[in-house]
Amino acid sequence: MKPKALDEARSRMVQEQIDRRGLHNQRLLDAFLKVPRHLFVPEEAIEYAYNDEPLPISCGQTISQPYIVALMTSLLDLHGGENVLEIGAGSGYQAAILAEMTKTVHSVEYHAALAEGAQKALNGAGYGRVQVHVGDGSLGWPESAPYQGIVVTAAAPKAPHPLLNQLDDGGKLVLPVGARGRQELQVWERRGANFTHESIIPVSFVPLRGEYGWSEEQWPLSL
Ligand code: SAH
Description:
CATH architecture of the domain at 54-203: 3-Layer(aba) Sandwich
CATH topology of the domain at 54-203: Rossmann fold
Strand order of the largest sheet: 5-4-3-6-7-8-9
Helix content: 25-40%
Strand content: 25-35%
Bound molecules: S-adenosyl-L-homocysteine
Number of strands: 9
Largest sheet: 7 strands, mixed
Structural class: alpha/beta
């Protein structure tokens, strides 16, 4: 696809999939207009980069549907100065969107190969300031805590308490909670020692692994 066609597809994505579905925040829309999503999908999928659907990346994982990335980002309610943690770098796309919306972004990825690919894509697209770490993100990333926002892009059995503990006062944790085929998107907010949460919509994500995630026996990837 030619650069002009990609730009047009990206504008259409923002208008039809994000703005028209009720997410009107201009900073959010600008971030999605700016980040070249096609640089974060496998080469053979470039023509589908701006489609209204998730796409397969490597290691059996997926880059989420644009609307879901937008919804999760909007639920963090970012104003530009926050320190944000993402769990599940995958392609690096969500991290690039976060980098457009705030100051500091850390992302933890379980698969070293994906982490390497994500950092490369981020560097190539001008988001080299995002730091991708290899590790078990169900434990968070204590070194850079506290975070004003944490977003998890894989489904957890329940909100992992290390992530809640690494939230700053007033900070928000956005994550899919549940098993294969029945998950809900939850938003948690910390107020001092108190945590409240609400459910937003049903969603469908790949499993979170690691200590506070699903085991391969509980949720095999092939299913
Ligand atoms: N945010 C990604 C979506 C990736 S899919 C994007 O924009 O492309 C979810 C990712 O979570 C996968 O890459 C998977 O490897 C990763 N993951 C699963 N369990 C994890 C864990 N415990 N710690 C960190 N990453 C994890």
